[in-house]
Structure formats: C-alpha cells, structure tokens
Design a protein that fits this description.
Helix content is 22%, strand content 24%. With 268 residues, the chain is an alpha/beta fold. It has a single domain, classed as Metallo-dependent phosphatases (Purple Acid Phosphatase, chain A, domain 2), CATH 3.60.21.10. The longest helix has 13 residues, at 25-37.
C-alpha cells in the first residue's frame, strides 16, 4: 500500500534565526524533519506543497536543501506564492522529474514513485493577483494529456486550494481564480486520480467534490483560523509542526494528521 507524508508552508527565511508571525520557522522545520526521519514505518515520499521560502532568498533555499536532504525518501517540492520557481528548480532538485518544456521558468513536472505518478502544478499568477492562484493554460493542457495517456494511479500536488471554503477573508484573497476549470479537467482522470494535495491555508482541511478528495495540511510557521464570520485573518502561534500521513489503498484514501515532537506512551 503506497504511503506518503504531506507537509507545507515552511516559510524559511535567510537565516536560521529568522522569525515570521512570532515563530522561528527553521527550528520548527528541524523538529519536523527529525520526526519524519524517525517514523517507525515505511513511506515512499515526502511532498511539500509550497512556500518553502518566506522571502525567495537564495540563502533560504540553501537552508531548505540542507534540511530536507536529511529525509530518508525523496521530497517533492511545489512552488508557493512566496517561492521563486526557477531557484527551486536549480537548488531543490527532484530525482526523476520530467519538467514541462513549455514552461522553463515554472516548477511544473511529473515524477513516478512506486505505483503512483505525481503531477506538480505551478499556479503562481502575475504579481497583481497574488496571493490568489491561477493554473496557466499550458498546465491545463498538460493535465488533459496525462488524463488521456497515464496508466498509473495519479496524485496532483499544488499550492492553492481550488474552491472557496466558507471563510470570508480567505475566500476573497487566497483561493484559485480558475479552480472550477481545474476541477473539470481533473474529473477527466476518473478513478485513477486518487487525491489532490495543497497548502497555502496554514490549516487542515479536506474538501470532497465529485468523489475527489482535496487535502490540505497545516503550516509549521503559523496557523490560520477559518471561522465563517471572520472578515480578517486570525493566527495562532507558537505552534508545533504538523504533517499528514496519507495511505492509498485499492478502495480508499486515508489521511491522518500528527503534531511533531509529542511524547507517546502506551496505555495498554
């Protein structure tokens, strides 16, 4: 049974001491990587759904490269709205990545790990639209080709959630502009598309639409609140790093969320 770890939104700065929203992201990321490296079961990959960096600095990606190279499995990286896609392509290489030739400036690629083909989207828009996402037409065509010809199970990775979530401040500013189009294209995969994983929310959420699970994971930098009356963001900090364990069985997808750095004691 394929099993992966899902993390997101590390927001590493130019130095290990850099702080964002009252948190020191590098220290939180160290704790998370230590936890993942010591998990007592096998998993095939770690997927990081974007905002590796907080400031697009070369030094932040140098910290990320040093840190995530300690993981015992490949790490697949997605470009978030705080990231530099071209710098990520050169500084955070993904073994076996098949990049889209149509977009050399973007971090959009496919990679096969075990029985699953991972399709990575780069939905960074023009600066005026940030922090919303926009999947370009070239990647829509890429998805349609994959839906037609891919024989493997598929998991799509992206940074932005595709739909409104019922929180006014988030829905106004942070979702994907062409999420409805993206969803229509993803339905072309049928049952071989097992899940779509995303970040950007700094919180946990699962949206199931037309039988397709869209799964988000919290950030290690700060946690947002999504109450239905919130017209401005609220954050919680300090926080512990979170991660999802996602398992793909033949008839189900199972997601379990954990906090890093907890002490576990048997009560049996």
């Amino acid at each position: 049974m394929p099993r992966i770890v899902h993390i997101s939104d590390s927001h590493l700065g130019p130095t290990p001491e850099y702080q964002v929203m009252g948190q020191t992201p590098y220290q939180t990321a160290i704790e998370l990587v230590k936890e993942l490296a010591s998990l007592p079961f096998d998993y095939e990959a770690v997927v990081h759904t974007g905002d590796i960096s907080a400031d697009k600095s070369k030094s932040s990606y140098e910290l990320a490269s040093k840190l995530y190279s300690k993981l015992p499995v490949p790490c697949l990286f997605v470009a978030g709205n705080h990231d530099d896609s071209e710098m990520m392509r050169s500084m955070l290489p993904v073994p076996g990545a098949q990049f889209q030739n149509a977009e050399p400036h973007r971090l959009s690629y496919a990679v096969q790990i075990g029985k699953i083909r991972y399709l990575i989207l780069d939905a960074q828009p023009e600066p005026a639209l940030d922090p919303q996402g926009l999947v370009p037409n070239s990647q829509i065509s890429f998805l349609r080709a994959e839906a037609k010809f891919s024989g493997s199970d598929v998991v799509v990775l992206m940074h932005y959630p595709p739909f409104p979530i019922g929180s006014p401040w988030f829905d106004k500013n942070m979702t994907m502009i062409n999420g409805e189009l993206l969803h229509a294209v993803l339905k072309e995969f049928g049952p071989k598309l097992r899940a779509v994983l995303f970040g950007h929310m700094h919180g946990a959420m699962t949206i199931v639409r037309d039988g397709l699970p869209y799964i988000g994971v919290p950030s290690g930098a700060a946690r947002f609140r999504f109450w239905p009356q919130d017209i401005q963001p609220f954050i919680a900090h300090p926080i512990k790093a979170s991660f999802n364990i996602i398992s793909f069985d033949h008839d189900r997808v199972t997601t379990t969320q954990y906090l890093a750095g907890l002490d576990w004691n048997s009560i049996g």
